[in-house]
Specification:
It is built from four helices and five strands; from the N terminus they run H-E-H-H-E-E-H-E-E. By secondary structure, the protein is an alpha+beta fold.
C-alpha cells in the first residue's frame, strides 16, 4: 500500500511541476480584446506600450520604423504522459499542448502605426499517442 501512495505522490508532484514557460509574463493571459483596447494605432506611444508590457523581447527596424516583439509560450504535457513516465511506460509516447501569445508593435516617431496579436494553440504527440 505504501508503494502505491508513493507512486501517487510522485505523479502528483510531477503534475504540479511539469509545465514550462518562457518569455514576457505580461503576455501570459492577454487577449486580442485587451491588446486592441490598450494599443491604438496612431494614438498609443512607445512609452505607454512599455508601461503596459515592459521591455520588448526583441527590437528590429523596418523601413525606418521601430518594431517591438513580445511573446509568451507555455508547454504542458497531459496527465497520462506524466503518469506513464512515473510508472515506466514513457516509451508508449507523449502528448503535449503548447500555447503562445505574441504581440508585434510598429512605431514611427514613437507612436504606434500598426500592431498585431497572435494566439496559437498547438498539440503534439509522439509514439503511440500521436
Amino acid at each position: 500500500m505504501n508503494i502505491i501512495r508513493l507512486a501517487l505522490a510522485g505523479v502528483m508532484l510531477t503534475a504540479m511541476t511539469a509545465c514550462s514557460s518562457a518569455g514576457n509574463s505580461s503576455m501570459k493571459n492577454v487577449t486580442v480584446a485587451d491588446v486592441d483596447r490598450n494599443v491604438r494605432d496612431g494614438v498609443t506611444t512607445s512609452a505607454q506600450v512599455r508601461q503596459l508590457y515592459g521591455e520588448p523581447g526583441a527590437t528590429s527596424y523596418d523601413n525606418g520604423n521601430e518594431v517591438w516583439n513580445y511573446e509568451f509560450v507555455s508547454d504542458r504535457p497531459d496527465g497520462l504522459s506524466m503518469a506513464q513516465d512515473a510508472v515506466g511506460l514513457g516509451f508508449l509516447g507523449t502528448k503535449d499542448s503548447m500555447r503562445s501569445n505574441a504581440l508585434e508593435v510598429t512605431f514611427r516617431n514613437g507612436v504606434v502605426v500598426h500592431h498585431s496579436f497572435t494566439t496559437k494553440n498547438i498539440g503534439s504527440g509522439s509514439g503511440l499517442r500521436r
